[in-house]
Amino acid sequence: MKRAIAFSLMLAAVLLASAQTKKVSILGDSYSTFTGINPDGYAPFYPNDRNDVTKPEQTWWDLYIKAKGYQLEKNDSWGGTTICNTGYGRRDVSANSFTARIDRLGNPDIIFVFGGTNDAWANAPIGEYKYKKWESEDLKSYRPALAYLLKTIKKQYPKAKVYAILNSELKEDINESTRTVCKKCKVQLIELHDIEKQNGHPSIKGMESICQQLLESIK
């Protein structure tokens, strides 16, 4: 009898732990890539000869997921991509921008949107704040594209908690625009600071710092 009760309690504990395991999806750029993890045809940065991150286990997202006991649902990260549909050289990148990949995140409980870096580096248009009735021209600029992205993600994944991550050392117009849009869309923004980088991308130490800042910011 005691053995049966003990087994039942153990089974209940396992089922409870399983029920509490959250699935995490990432919509990102090169900072969240790793060869073999992202979909075929995407452009990963990691591993890279000019950066000491050599294993997925050293990435910010793997560190965070394991620290929390979660599991990876989808990592839809594509190196060099912008949130808006204007890329480097003012090219039309509507085929692979963040806004083009919203429906590729699976069935997550948590979504991390980690972008804006390439919008800043590519000097993409900032545009005006716009929170509804977007047209294709609006999505060529950062502010309306970010609003469209966050609002659409929240609508498409109503059960998921959405977080935005903002890289350190970006232009202030990108920083302030991201703060404003996230506040309006009611999405928690984690602004990174003091991230060590090699070749413009987080090193092992930088990845660990990103993970730690997420753990401290998300309660």
Which structural traits does this protein have?
219 residues, alpha/beta, five-stranded parallel sheet, two-stranded antiparallel sheet, 6 helices
Description:
Strand 6 (197-198) and strand 7 form a beta hairpin. Helix 2 packs across helix 6 and helix 4 packs parallel to helix 5 (172-185). It contains 6 helices and 7 strands, in the order αβαββααβαβββα. The chain starts with a helix and ends with a helix. With 219 residues, it is an alpha/beta fold.
Topology record:
Layout: H1 2-20, E1 23-28, H2 60-68, E2 71-77, E3 110-114, H3 117-121, H4 142-156, E4 161-166, H5 172-185, E5 188-191, E6 197-198, E7 201-202, H6 204-217
In short:
The protein has helices spanning 2-20, 60-68, 117-121, 142-156, 172-185, 204-217, and strands spanning 23-28, 71-77, 110-114, 161-166, 188-191, 197-198, 201-202. It has 219 residues and is of the alpha/beta class. The radius of gyration is 19 Å and the shape is globular.
**Largest β sheet strand count, sense and barrel closure:** 5 strands, parallel
Q: Oligomeric form of this entry?
A: single chain
Write down the Rg: 19 Å
Structural class: alpha/beta
- The level of helicity is 25-40%
**Distance N to C terminus:** 41 Å
General form:
globular
Number of helices: 6
Sheet-strand content, in percent, reads 5-15%
Low-confidence spans: pLDDT under 50, at least 5 residues?
none
Give the strand tally. 7
Mean of pLDDT = 94
Order the strands across the largest sheet as they lie in space. Answer: 2-1-3-4-5
In N-to-C order, the SSE pattern is: HEHEEHHEHEEEH
